[in-house]
Amino acid sequence: PVFAGMNGSAIENFSCVIYNIFLMNCTWQAGRDAPADTQYFLYWQKSREDNQMECELYMQGENGRNMGCMFQNVSIGIEKAYFLVNGSSKDSLIQFYDEYIDLYKIEKLMPPSNITVNCDEIKNDCVIQWQQPQISHSNKDMCFKYEINIKYK
């Protein structure tokens, strides 16, 4: 059956973030009713055409249980990515957790670079310029809104 496994054994609070353009961290908490020996394993698939990949670099909690994963060389496609976390225990079956995520929605953007400020005291104005930060997906112009906070000394 699709939902085989002990109730409350699937992971909770699953969350992923992409940062520094191509790194992705995913974290979760153990199911509240999972047996103490439960170990979790994360798989993800960027698109239907791609192969499912298991995490290569798990982050572990104090008891050696996998509680997160770090991925490198992540690129953002146009399809939702599929994430699956299953678990194993010698005592009972563990429910799996799965979710589809738009990767562009979880990207933490870098700050703008090459910020310059040129002020003209005679005209009493300033020109502030910057370069848009690099991002890993294509809808660059639709993603950026800037806020400038100017404080006078």
Keywords:
Short_hematopoietin_rcpt_2_CS; receptor; transmembrane helix; Immunoglobulin-like; four-stranded antiparallel beta sheet; elongated; 1 helix; FN3_sf; 10 strands
Poorly predicted runs of 5 or more residues: none
Content of β-strand = 35-45%
Order of helices and strands: EEEEEEEEEEH
Instruction: Give a count of the beta strands, DSSP E runs of length 2 or more.
Output: 10
Report the average pLDDT across residues.
87
- The helical percent reads under 10%
InterPro entries: FN3_sf, Ig-like_fold, Short_hematopoietin_rcpt_2_CS, TypeI_recpt_CBD
Subcellular location: Membrane
GO molecular function, one term: cytokine receptor activity
Keywords: Glycoprotein, Membrane, Receptor, Signal, Transmembrane, Transmembrane helix
Compact description:
The chain has 153 residues and is mostly beta strands. It contains 1 helix and 10 strands, in the order ββββββββββα.
What this model shows, in words?
Residues 13-106 form the Type I cytokine receptor cytokine-binding domain. One of its GO terms (cellular component) is external side of plasma membrane. One of its GO terms (molecular function) is cytokine receptor activity. It is found in: Membrane. This is CSF2R factor. This protein has 153 residues and is an all-beta fold. It has a domain at 12-105: Sandwich (Immunoglobulin-like). It is built from one helix and ten strands. A four-stranded antiparallel beta sheet has the order 1-2-6-5, with no helix packed on it. Strands 4-3-7-8 form a four-stranded antiparallel beta sheet, with no helix packed on it. A hairpin with a 4-residue loop joins strand 9 (113-120) and strand 10 (125-131). The longest helix has 4 residues, at 140-143. The radius of gyration is 22 Å and the shape is elongated. The chain starts with 11 loop residues before the first strand and ends in a 10-residue tail after the last helix. The mean pLDDT is 87.
